[in-house]
Amino acid sequence: MQELRRTRAGPFKEDETLTNLHQLSAAQSDFEAGDDAALTKIIQPMELALNQLPKIIIRDSAVDAVCHGAELALPGVVRLDSAIDRNGLVALFTMKGEAIALGRSQLTSREILDQEKGIAAKVERVIMERGTYPAMWKH
Predict the structure, then answer these.
(1) pTM of the model
(2) Are 30 and 39 in contact (CB under 8 A)?
(3) In the 8-state DSSP scheme, what is residue 43?
(4) Residue 91's pLDDT is what?
(5) Which of 23, 77, 85, 129 has its CA 20 to 30 A from that of 3?
């Protein structure tokens, strides 16, 4: 074998990527000069990479707690994909489609829908910066 070439990684395809670092350097220079058009075409949102995972959409009031590593309780769930397995990797998103965290589902999709109390997912990796959504405290 003379060459091994990756043509796809997850949802990303080779023909959708940069051909060289000179393009990135030129885009960075344009950005520093006030033109972000080229850089915006190059940099893809992180949410795109998470699209292949089952999703749980959570309430705005639960976002900050999850950003601090709290488990996602069932009342915080707004919507979810139907293909969630117990102990499966899931992506937690805001209602606006912003990635919050990766977690392990503690229940199946059906169990999450059927139960009123319990833990839907344990957070494994927080993506969103703390404080992006204000903490919602009951007084």
Answers:
(1) 0.79
(2) yes
(3) P
(4) 98
(5) 23
